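Researcher: Good morning. I'm working through a list of sequences from a screen, and I'd like to move beyond sequence-only analysis. For each chain I'm collecting a predicted structure so we can compare shapes side by side. This is the next one on the list. No need for commentary yet; just the structure.
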Amino acid sequence: MPPIQRHLQAISAILLSVPLIGSAANHVFKWAKPPMSDGSRGAQMWELIRDGGLMDWLAVGHLMLGILLLVPRTRFAAGVMQLPITIGIVAFNVTMFPRGIALGIAMLVLNLGVVLKPRDIRRLLLPTSD
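Model: Good morning. Structure tokens for this chain:
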């Protein structure tokens, strides 16, 4: 892998790990309040996740994947494991919690930066007519 590609992948992985590790840390230390219940389906789902105990497991998963993204040897595998989760985050925000769409899209772009080569990203963004 060329050095520039390694650097882009590393930067994408580090930036993607920030919300994952931050979310896990916030769950433990309660720095930021969770989204307020505004009656939307997304807010109701967040309440169910928190009150039902699922957030504990999500925090563990976020922390593990965030750390794996920081380790060069496990970076690609962590990016592949995170990709369906990131797609789920985008889908959740698009359908149930529109306030989070920007963060979801940013995470998806970073996640693709971890698992795809720049050539593949260009093909996705600039399709050629054959």
